[in-house]
## 1
Amino acid sequence: MFCLGIIGIFTLALSKLSAQHVFMERKEFIYEGKAKQVYSTEDPNKVIIFYKDDATAFNAQKRGTVQEKGIVNNKMTAILFKKLAQEGVPNHFIDQLSDREQLCHKVEIVPLEFVVRNVIAGSMAKRLGIEEGTVPPNQIIDICYKKDELGDPLINDDHAVALGAASYEDLKVMYAYTRTINDFLKAEFDKSGITLVDFKIEFGKDANGNILLADEISPDTCRLWDKETGKKMDKDRFRRDLGNVEEAYFEVLNRIS
Ligand code: TMP
Ligand code: ASP
């Protein structure tokens, strides 16, 4: 009886461990982007995403390394995607496997970038001649066509449909998720003393055609300013050669953890 009990507990512990995907391993290399690599697994509908330290800016014209950026971005994405799932935003994240690896649902990326701007900065400030830091009276969502050769141009909904990037119905779903994500992230960063200035997200479609939030949410893909001092705590430190890039990334992670 006692013995059976022990075996039972052991089996339960083992099944719990496998449920946490400790045995999932990288199989074939599938794809390498600017900041991540994607590998197949034994499950055709799941992939392992490996976060690198490589940093690029201005459509890869500027290249460098940010030490341990991959560790920060993997961890931060894991924390935020887990919480976003609880907020009703389905996403590709399944489990964090190691410092730099996460197990995700395999998706086909929708070739659009959704950018939310709560404060004007970056390309919008430059393109429209608006001072960085200006708070607009309305919520701004840009969509860009994900195409490196064209420099990811800003497009509109009609263009996205004409390009075959998404249907009007898909766009409606992605805009709704984008608004929910912004509400959640703004509040989450605010609690950590950080202003969420703007950010970029991407979506994908899983094997059943469901739209899932994909890619990452990290200091690479957000502009994050300290609420008190206005200090930049994101990839602009790399883009604009401001120094202390690593420190800023770790500080963001520590604050939101
Ligand atoms: P932008 O001001 O350069 O258009 O950037 C808006 C936001 O999108 C900013 O938080 C940085 C993020 N972003 C990316 O994540 N990837 C990119 O390739 C670009 C251009 C911006
Ligand atoms: N990720 C983009 C690139 O290299 C740009 C950026 O984040 O500024 O090309």
## 2
Amino acid sequence: MNMQRIIKSTNLISDIEKIVAEIKHDKLFVLTDEHTANLCLPLLDPWIAVKDVSRVVIPANDTNKTLENLAYIWKHLTQNGATRHSLLINLGGGMVTDIGGFAAATFKRGITYINIPTTLLGAVDAAVGGKTGINFEGFKNEIGAFYPAACVLISSRFFSSLGRKDILSGFSEMLKHALINSEAEWKKLLTFDAGDIDYEWLTDAVFRSVSIKEEIVKKDPFEHNIRKALNLGHTVGHAFESFALETERPVLHGYAVAWGLISELYLSHRVCGFPKEELQKTVRFIHRNYGAFALDCDDYEHLYDIMTHDKKNANASSVNFTLLSGVGDIQINRVAGKDLIFQSLDFYRDSVGL
Ligand code: GLY
């Protein structure tokens, strides 16, 4: 897999000009959703004004990461004369970079694309590492491909306009990166105050976080082994997220991951001896910042069913997890039985006061 360049943008216009000039292409396309078309694309106006850029706009939100919108992008590319040498720029959050990346992966067997993430979650996770895809038949990212952007341009100027919830949603992926990386990084992140954000501190933390992810992806781009570390918190987190959607009380991805981390650090404690003190400190941070997602013990069977469908599991009768034996000590391919998973859900409910 080609490696992608991650660029810390200090001047969006001149950085994009430079990158686009370096990538050989004929036609240029920019994909946004309805939100980023209004809120972010205008920042590129001075550049777009002098370029012949074809704009594609799709509806916002993860529920629109669909086959229909993928086909809409393909149609736009075809009808506007895109060739194998065209360049696509995805400007948006994870939804835009996921579907745009997959459109690029599949159009004429693959065209070059650039990601410009506009959310914290996108910058620290979705835009980086080459995973692209769409949701299908009610399952998140069911169809997709590993197909990295030629370049990811990260500009912190988008972060300051994000609301507290969107910051926290991205921050849980940063916390995950810190947990799989080192005690020092984890300690730094637990000092984060979402009520009084220091954007300079946050930007530095974002780039450290992206490097942690990059290092892992470099070692195992197709997730055969160590990249599974990035799934920490996501097996339970995805189950919470899908369940939330089904019960019509959708939650942000990063919130589901934060709550998933509570259960999975408990499993880490029980299965791999993850220390109690680190568990408690992390759980307190998550509860203080992310509150709770309500569930009761009658929901456990269904959550377990969702977990067994998770594509990271080898078969339907066991659930495969990435766990930790300590902060920075990754244990991939650990299996937990149903009873223990139910206990981890009890622990989650106790921890968040349900
Ligand atoms: N979001 C996890 C990964 O990129 O592997």
## 3
Amino acid sequence: MGTVIATDREGAEHRLEAREGHTLMEILRDGGLPIEAICGGQCICSTCHVYVDAEWAGRLTPRATDEQVMVEDSGHYEENSRLACQVPYVDELDGIRLTLAPEF
Ligand code: FES
């Protein structure tokens, strides 16, 4: 078990309990953050878009092609963009920091 540190769209920081076996999207959603995740993690809606802090971004598995296409089409793409539903939480990510991307 670990912690995900998420900054919401108003700039408030939230420390969320995280367990392996869940995606970052599930951790954000279950932690009460306003992340829509309309498609339920199918990589087809981009409503789970987050920016992973630079110090952590390089530790994640690279984006797959479908994730890359979706974040690039989101209108708010940054180099550190990720779809939270495509990033499984593992204990090595304890303390990861991320920020919710703007809504559509
Ligand atoms: Fe839809 Fe992540 S929940 S793309």
## 4
Amino acid sequence: MALLEILHYPEPLLKKTSVPVTVFDDELRQLAKDMADTMYDAPGVGLAAPQVGVLKRFIVMDCSTGEEPDDLIFAVNPEIVAREGDAVEEEGCLSVPGFFANINRAAQVRMRYQDLAGNTLERDADGLLAICIQHEIDHLDGVLFVDRLSPLKRSMFRKKYLKMLKEREQADAT
Ligand code: GNR
Ligand code: NI
């Protein structure tokens, strides 16, 4: 089992747009396995490749709450092809540890994606999975949930978060 290092805000790689996956090979399958291990270890309900420094359009998710242990989803080149309704959920992000905020999203989405063999599939989602799909695809476009806050809340976040990082740095140095 290989755990990957999760990059944290304000790492510049998290702002980049990821490129489509064109090769469905062992390297992709290894990345899938390592990302799933890393997500479960964190623990988190989703992980996007750029969060581990790989700028490819690939995400893993498991939003099952124990009752469906086999709901691990690997989605290559995911896109949202339909969205409906509005939902507000408190979100967090493994790349922004310790910070949570309410974010507006679509309540239901249809995701088109490819599996690890390159087959194209579609899946309808609501609840936490719909939120997670939108959160993870944002990562592929270099967007973090804090980018979706109002300008005022976003600047408050930035100040508070950078201050916390500085304090932690000073604590580590002593
Ligand atoms: O683990 C995670 N929980 C979560 C909760 C609410 C909305 C989105 C998420 S995704 C997050 C893991 C993560 O950062 N994925 O990119
Ligand atoms: Ni995230």
